[in-house]
Specification:
214 residues
């Protein structure tokens, strides 16, 4: 799924859903205290696999990308079993939200303890049709319910979604990826230092790992 900065910041449907969720809640006034500095744990790598693996593979994904969801459900289980769990690669999950709903979902995922991050992301990708795209569904309300199942209270959920420092940190990280790697769509993968964008089957993925020295 292609991305432009205009997509992320536009007042399209995902943004309106977020606005609807925030309606009626106290706004930050001019005299509100500045947002606290971002906890570095919230923007550190979320990864699976041995830190000493020969090859690091990064996946840059959006939680509202249908292609990312399909890869997560149909290809990634085999990648995990044959390449991650066997020690061949270290797999790093990188946020590349395509819209405001995906950005907020990434913030919530990053606020969870490390061990809950991957299961939560996999759950969101597996249930996109329910929480992100279903007609008449309040995406933020559904996200709050799923976050509660992952152990994040309603109060904590509101603190996270209001955390403008964390929101900006994720946007800045995305900007950095665009400038450094030329990423403009999801899913995008970095095999060592080589970019590949788009879906692929397991055999193609495994070959790229081998070609990159993994």
């Amino acid at each position: 799924m292609s991305l432009t900065r205009r997509t992320l910041l536009s007042a399209g449907a995902p943004t309106l859903l977020l606005a609807g969720f925030m309606a009626g809640r106290p706004a930050r006034g001019a005299d509100a205290p500045p947002a606290p500095a971002v906890d570095p744990r919230l923007i550190s790598d979320r990864a699976l696999g041995s830190p000493t693996a020969k090859l690091v593979v990064q996946e840059w994904f959006s939680l509202t990308c249908t292609h990312c969801a399909r890869f997560s459900q149909t290809v990634f289980p085999e990648v995990k079993a044959k390449l991650i769990d066997t020690g061949r690669i270290r797999y790093v999950f990188q946020d590349f939200p395509l819209d405001q709903v995906a950005l907020t979902a990434s913030m919530v995922a990053r606020a969870l303890p490390d061990e809950r991050y991957v299961p939560f992301v996999e759950s969101l990708l597996a249930s996109q049709d329910h929480w992100a795209f279903a007609q008449g569904v309040d995406s933020m309300a559904e996200l709050a319910k799923m976050a509660a199942l992952a152990g994040l209270s309603q109060d904590a959920f509101h603190r996270v979604t209001d955390d403008q420092a964390l929101r900006q940190a994720l946007i800045d990280k995305q900007d950095g990826a665009q400038k450094k790697y030329g990423i403009d769509s999801t899913p995008s993968f970095i095999f060592g230092g080589t970019l590949f964008s788009g879906e692929m089957d397991y055999d193609t993925f495994a070959k790229k790992v081998s070609d990159a020295g993994g």
